[in-house]
Design a protein that fits this description.
single chain; 188 residues; mainly alpha; Arc Repressor Mutant, subunit A; two-stranded parallel ribbon; 2 strands; 2% strand; globular
């Protein structure tokens, strides 16, 4: 385990003993992945096997370094939110890395073209920041709009992904045609 991962794991253990989520206070002030609801997580979670935590911390570090374009998880959100919120969260997961959609575009995509404000509320109720990338939703005029993690964090995430998306595009010429994920080997 590398120093960065060890540090992240130690921060996690000290702040959230027995919790299956990730630590608050991510590097560079980026948002917390709150209350991660994994399909196999017990109701009163107790970490006895650190493998899932290590996997999550590595995924998060790779994302923050620009080496990963998505954070995947076996999510079970059936007990979370309303049916409308779950449809919005699924639509947010379909927004590609490095791109944004307006609240209105998301509202249209879930079949409720006049529900822009409700989309904003669903973003605010998002239980899993980054995995459900609500930071990719902006106002129709292109301004960032709100974000539960604060405007600085939203702007930092959008910039991180903008730079990473540019790298994906420029690296595409060196990649096989079916390569869709950035790896540490093809980073400059």
């Amino acid at each position: 385990m590398g120093d960065s991962e060890a540090s992240l794991l130690e921060t996690f253990r000290s702040r959230y003993p027995g919790h299956p989520g990730l630590p608050a206070g991510q590097p560079a002030g980026l948002p917390t992945v709150r209350d991660l609801h994994l399909q196999d997580a017990p109701a009163e979670p107790e970490i006895t096997d650190e493998v899932p935590l290590r996997q999550w911390s590595m995924m998060l570090l790779e994302y923050l370094r620009g080496e990963r374009t998505f954070l995947d998880a076996p999510l079970d959100l059936q007990e979370q939110g309303t049916p409308f919120q779950r449809r919005v969260w699924k639509a947010l997961q379909a927004i590609p890395y490095g791109e944004t959609r307006s609240y209105q575009e998301v509202a249209r995509s879930v079949g409720h073209p006049l529900a822009s404000r409700a989309v904003g509320m669903a973003c605010g109720a998002n239980p899993i920041a980054l995995v459900i990338p609500c930071h990719r939703v902006v106002r129709s005029d292109g301004k960032p709009g709100g974000y539960g993690g604060g405007m600085e964090r939203k702007l930092a995430l959008l910039e991180l992904e903008r730079r990473g998306a540019m790298s994906v595009t420029s690296d595409a010429y060196d990649q096989p045609p079916d390569s869709h994920c950035i790896s540490a080997q093809n980073r400059v």
